[in-house]
Amino acid sequence: MTMMSKLSTELLEEILSRVPMTSMRSVRCTCRNWNTICKDATFTKKHLSQTTSEGEILTVVMMNCSLHLMRVNLQRVGLDHPTIKTTGKLISLDDSYQVVVSRVCHCDGLLLCTTEAYSWLAVWNPFTSQTRWICVEPTSVRHRKIWYSHALGYEEGKSFRIYKILRFAGNVHEIYALKSSDSWRVLDVNTDWDIGYDNHGVSLKGNTYWYAKVAGGVGFLLCFDFTRERFGPLMPLPFECFSEDAVILSSVGEEQQQQLAVLFQHRETFEMEVWVTTKVEPDAVSWSMFFAVDMGPLTGFRFNTGGSFVVDEENAAVVVFDEDRNVEKPTRNTAYIVGFGESSYFREVDLGKITTGKEGFPHACSYVPSSVQT
């Protein structure tokens, strides 16, 4: 019998590429050679093609302060089998104790995790298991009691990407560059808009976009440019919206052709629209209608702005991650699948019980593994 250590690199890559993603950490810890192979970008692409089905969307979902890897496949939604499958719970960020995660952001295969006690941030690559811990160090005693909002993005360097973290609370905005900093820099930012804490930003081509509101509660699109380290102008959304409406951002497509998507649901009629950008830059945007549907007869409630959704353009469907229909006392995390076109359909998928005492809606983001080093 041939030992694994005697196999050629090509054959070894072929074997390792078939290992489930949630078991890759054990593979990398086996020996130095396997760890080196798994960090290669070519292997990452091969592994992704071997372990995912055509048309499948990999999604990282935060529920009950834990991170889960899920596979969304809507190609055969009419058949009697699960359309959303939980592959497994992503391992702890640290072997010594279970880290409680309160918030998560995604950018380029990296997850920015906010710990519950807000004493540390972690930039984590689940595929390589590499973690970069960053001390929070609030700038004042007043801000130690404030939960900051965060974003992860990058600046395109000459030979590599420079990853940066933005955090802000009130009028305080600070930035941290992973490769060249050991402290936070305060940015000179004057704001006449507001980004709610429950309003998650979406990373797109290295920048982050938010739904922002001005006086009177009118909503706009806002971008932070990580290269220039500044916010762009307020940009129009393709609908008129106010504070009580649900507005949720997402992304769609592969990185180079990636576009922004926005879900809008009216506060009273429950009518829902999903729009996708045809052009999006830090200072310019144009939109195209994806679909519209009346959710009143289907759910009878409005989705939360703190929720999230993913788009399947090919199969003309969206999946909204939220809580169950019991608005006053929800007990289950739920995914709502809405398909339209020639085969319109609606389906609810139970994602499990809401843990007592853990606040926050299930938050999902499309995920593509990468070998990026933190």
Head-to-tail CA distance between termini: 39 Å
Overall pLDDT metric: 82
Task: Enumerate how many helices there are, as a single number.
Answer: 4
- What coarse outline follows from CA principal-axis ratios? globular
Helix content: under 10%
With strands numbered from the N-terminus, the spatial order across the biggest sheet is 3-2-1-24
Count the E strands: 24
Largest sheet: 4 strands, antiparallel
Q: How much is the radius of gyration in Å?
A: 21 Å
> What is the percentage of strand-forming residues?
35-45%
Query: Which stretches of 5+ consecutive residues score pLDDT under 50?
Result: none
Order of helices and strands: HHHHEEEEEEEEEEEEEEEEEEEEEEEE
Keywords:
24 strands, four-stranded antiparallel β-sheet, 9% helix, 374 residues
Provide structural commentary:
9% of the residues lie in helices and 42% in strands. With 374 residues, it is mainly beta. A hairpin with an 8-residue loop joins strand 21 and strand 22 (332-339). Helix 2 (24-30) packs across helix 3. The protein is globular, with a radius of gyration of 21 Å. The two termini are 39 Å apart.
